[in-house]
Amino acid sequence: MKGWSDAGRRPVAALLALAAAAFCYVSVETVPVGLLSQISSDLGVPSFRIGLLVTGYGVTVAVVSLPMVRVVAAVPRRPLILGLMVVLVTATAVSAAAPGYGLLFVARVLTALSQAVFWAVVAPVAVGMFPAHVRGRVTAVVFTGGSLGPMLGVPAGTWLGQVAGWRVTFLALAALGLLAFLTLAVAMPPTPAFHEHAGRGTTPDARRYALVLATTALSVAGFFAVFTYTSTFITAVAGIPAALLGPLLVARGVADFGGVAGGGILSDRDQRLAVALPAVLLTATLISMFALGTNPVAAGTTLVLTGLAMGALTPALQNRVMEFAPGGTDTASAGNSVAYNIGVALGSSLGGLALAHFGTRSTALVGAALAAAAVAATVLTTLGPPAPGRTQAELAKDEAHG
Fold this sequence. Notes:
By secondary structure, the protein is an all-alpha fold. Helices cover 81% and strands 0% of the residues. Helix 7 runs antiparallel to helix 11 (245-269), helix 12 (271-292) packs antiparallel against helix 13 and helix 12 runs antiparallel to helix 15 (362-382). The chain is globular and about 55 Å long.
């Protein structure tokens, strides 16, 4: 495919290694959910304290993303990425060997600190290795690694922990992280060949950037208002047996995977449509879930479609961030990460309130309202005079002419 071949083989290998690193980070963050009882029993601590290993991790990423990015702003990206991978591998290995809860918690915090920086810089680093006209697809590859974390990493990590012990799961993730580090050390260029379009917003616009962050927060909130309470909705509202919840979540994960790929391709062709289409799909799906949620087939179908919509939004919104970033794209990406985490907290909180006061079915209506607000933010992004600078399409034309 033109664009990939223009960059050469080493950047492609480096891109795949970055996707593997994204997989490791997401898996390391969430895998204690499936290993809760094993870790609790082995370390002799209550289950709720093991739950804090995930909660504290997420809070750390949300709080420190912007400050940490400012701290490392002057650090060259290649040594920064390699340093982050060293922290990931070392802290994950320490987690596996931790004799007690205290050291395990500290290792998790260190991993979270590195992840906060990783998610802020990984997209600019990745797209800087390739021409502008494949930027959406490059972003999609990185986020595909992240999407595979909950879909593949957590179930596989849970199974491995049950068979060989939870420490082996962490060691396996550390080994995969080490492989990604070695690949990056060999393949990642010191100065990306196409870094000009990746370091700064191509059409800087603070208003549109703020609206993109609003779209991220509202769409994620709409999704998590329902997804947080999926098991209750599926069993209590739709009447689907609990045994089918696992296969449904796997199907949702597969749809998410497909959405990421499709969203990346569409983002390279029409950035506005790439955001608007999945946002509208998410809204329509959640409305349908509220209206038809008592029907098992409809409930299962809408659950899968939410994965498709959110998967497609992920690379499209990141690509939009890099288009409108009013300054450096790493700081702008950190802002988008913060917006995502705000959306998770907002959606799960509002969904919980709706569930407590109006019943489980109402979570879908709350989610639909939030998703509709995201659509409105998307529409507002397209209004107003064109931002100064060159669009992704114009950059692609420049590259095609030399």
